[in-house]
Every structure is written in structure tokens, then in C-alpha cells.
Amino acid sequence: xxxxxxxxxxxxxxxxxxxxxxxxxxxxxxxxxxxxxxxxxxxxxxxxxxxxxxxxxxxxxxxxxxxxxxxxxxxxxxxxxxxxxxxxxxxxxxxxxxxxxxxxxxxxxxxxxxxxxxxxxxxxxxxxxxxxxxxxxxxxxxxxxxxxxxxxxxxxxxxxxxxxxxxxxxxxxxxxxxxxxxxxxxxxxxxxxxxxxxxxxxxxxxxxxxxxxxxxxxxxxxxxxxxxxxxxxxxxxxxxxxxxxxxxxxxxxxxxxxxxxxxxxxxxxxxxxxxxxxxxxxxxxxxxxxxxxxxxxxxxxxxxxxxxxxxxxxxxxxxxxxxxxxxxxxxxxxxxxxxxxxxxxxxxxxxxxxxxxxxxxxxxxxxxxxxxxxxxxxxxxxxxxxxxxxxxxxxxxxxxxxxxxxxxxxxxxxxxxxxxxxxxxxxxxxxxxxxxxxxxxxxxxxxxx
Length: 449
Description:
about 450 residues; alpha/beta; seven-stranded mixed β-sheet; five-stranded mixed β-sheet; 9 helices; 29 strands; elongated
């Protein structure tokens, strides 16, 4: 993957980067993954890179939309329960039938849903409009052919008239041969997969789902299910970000927490490069004595992150004018210049950073033109004004009500409040030049659902 090296570290450390500058820098280094051909189910969630045209009409033949009897309209004209049309049943037409009986005057063929309309027939009368060949009143259904093969013969009484083409799906009524089935750029979900299968495509050319490796750092982290010792906490970040990567369309791999040791981290990252189109770390990017990601990647040699700009790879650690998520790292590492985003370790900071920077990177790797979450304008519904630090773009958790066009705060502004994040469905955005948002004021809301 070719990429643009981030801006020089020396300049990055002398100023605060804006959210928009950092995102632009990340996206400038991302190139969509090369297209490959995949079988249909393997292509689910991928972006189509070719226009797909319809080789055959759908449906490919006139067929019945009901279980009933294929008839000529003249033979059932004026039919009623008091004066039913009595027709001779000449056979069955089941779905998949090859040789078809010809329906002549005074005749009917028992027909199943999806079966081809036989020659001579002009309409289908549902079995509920008939006696089902029983000689009695209205039928509720057909007796299975295996249990009553005689149902394909004898007589049937039709109690209602039918217009021409009644209950008939016309050939090509879905799509015609030569029509555009799916355009390049389409994300393949279940309905699109169904259409491709219906027109006979077994494989398609797509950009594959990006492989995203997520790893968290911190000697204090314990895996869920294990016993907490003094001073330890459960590792939630790697689970949250791996799930978020999957939600964005990627194939995600979660690596267990790495202890605060630079050499161990470098070795772990190097091992993961073989299966990564994008690497995401969380924790260790601030200014503490144990901020291992910054230590491990700021000075790595050409084995991981090349110091030589001509080689195309380097890591850049910077501060952003945002809250939460001020410390960020970004660069490309390894022989293929794999993008790496280093996010802060506080749970809310890491998740907000993922939504703002990693999700767009994943979507860009997929080749999607629209890489960011949708946003709306909403009116703040709160008991008191929301404060925000000057010069920082703040992202607060919120609950959005589309019906009323309002958004309410969820929890406080602390970057450790996981419970509040779990109950939020949006991020309220307070601009850098705003320090207070009064109830009733309008603000931008990023929708997370």
C-alpha cells in the first residue's frame, strides 16, 4: 500500500493540531485496498468495483404468484359460488416443471407458486376461489401431490372470475436482461447478495473488508473472566475497538493487552503486521513515564517504522485541540507501510478517537466515498448549560430524539465514564470557540447508531 508520510514530528510537537487537520492527515495516507474476486458470501460487506448487468430477465418466464389453477379467462367469466365454472383438470404444473401441458377450452392445470404459466393459460385462480377438486365448498388449500395424486385430474369448480394476467408474474417484471443490476461502489448486503445470486453471479470483484488489528497496552490490564488483583482493571478498550472496527465493516483481530514494555510491544506489532491492513493501539501515547507506545514507536528503526522518509514510514505523536482525546499518534510502519493509529487509553477518549479517525480510515480502505458518521443539528435539552474548554472541540455523549429534534447529555465529561458511553447514541459537538452551550441552543450531533 502506498502512502504519504505524516508531517514532520518536530512541527507536530510545537502546536495543537485541529481535529480536521489530523483527520485529513490520516486520510491522505490511506489508499483503498486492491480489488479481488470473491465468492458471494465472502463478498458480504465489501464494496463492488464493477457495474453488474443483468444477463437474463427476472423472472425468466411468466410464473404463478399463487397456488391454484391456470385457466383461460373466457372459461371462468361470470363464475360464482352459485354458478361455478366447471373445468377439467389436465395435470399439475410444479415449480421447476419442464414439459408443460397446454390448457385448452374448458380445461385447467393445477399450478404451484413460482411454476411457469402453461401454454394456453391466461390467468391463475387461487385455490381458495375453487373447491380444490373436492366437489364441495371453497377449499382452504391443496392436498399434497404425494398423498393425493388424483388431484391432478378430475374436475374443479371455480367460484370467481379472473382477469387476464391475474396472479401472474410477468417475465422481466423484476429486471430486464441488460439492465444495470448493481453499480460500482455498492456495499454488498444481504439484498444485494440475493440479487447477484438470482441473476446467476457466483463471484464478484470487490474491495475486500480491511483487516484491522486492535491491541491495548498497560500492565494493569486483566482479561475479562480472570481475577482482578490489587491495582488492576479489566481490558475493555480492545473489545470496544475490535467491535467498532467490525461495525465499520472491517475484519477485526483483537490482541490481548500488552504489558508496559517497549520491546514486547515492538515485537507484538511486528508479529501482527502479516495480517493487518490497519493497526490500532490504545494507551501509552501521552507524556507519562510508562507511555509505552510512544516510547516503542517514536524511535524504531526500519524494521518497523522507518526513520528514513524516503522509505515512506514513520510515527508522529501529536496533541489535538479536542476533548477527550488530546494525545494521538499516527504513522505507517513495516515494509508495506501499514497505517497505525495510536489512540489514548481512557475508554471514552479511545472510543471517540476511533469514531473520528479510525472509522474514516477503515471506510477509506474499503473505497467508500462517505467515510464519516452522519450528523444533524439538534436543540440541547438539559437542566443547565454545558461548559467546554476554550480552544478545544469537545465531544460529549448524548441521547438524540429524532422526533423532537433534541439531544440530551448522558453522563459527565470524564473520559473514564464507560457506563455513560454505553447509554449514548450520539456525540454532541461543542466548537473550539464556544465555552458554554445554554439549554435550547442548537448544536451539531454526530449519530453513532
